[in-house]
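Appendix B, Record 12. Input sequence as logged:
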Amino acid sequence: MDLKQILERIVNDQSMHSKWLNTLSMMENAGARKIKACEHPLLVSEMILKHASEEARHAYYLKKQLSKIQEGACPTYEASYLLAPKQSQFYLDALDLRICKWLKQSYHWTGYELKYAAYLLVTYAIEVRAEHLYPVYKDVLTSTGSNVKVNTIITEEEGHLKEMKKQIHILFQGDERVATRAEETEQILYEEWLQALSTYCKS
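Logged structural output:
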């Protein structure tokens, strides 16, 4: 199944839809934590503060949307309240590890320099994915008459992607190959995640 088919099945099942929203919330929250973890103790930019706060707000917003489907559903991020929990929980960490490994081999960076470069590339790849995923989800929500809304998230993720492109261009001096490498690395993880979601929907 492709993403649209998977989301149609999810949205038409209350229990699965609740877990889907909770899974997205968990992944947004993981992004916020990852950004804070790569932060320099002193050299903190307004961009990073803004990005971390928006990711955390997305996590909260998605969590609040749960009440539109099932009141009291999915109170935590425990595996029983998630879709494809293994792939969902380790998605961001796996992407970060693979990109860090590539950066070490290609640029020999360490410390904060490595963390910042990885932050840009990981975020870029995730925002490219979000630019595809959230609009498809929005279309399915609209077609099914759901009260759940993701419009504000789409707008802010577009802003994040634009900023990441700008910062990557500066750091890597216009070398677009690094962005392509990040996308290719994320694509592998995405396909594994999609397969896990598809299997869940068929069970």
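DSSP finds seven helices and no strands in the chain.
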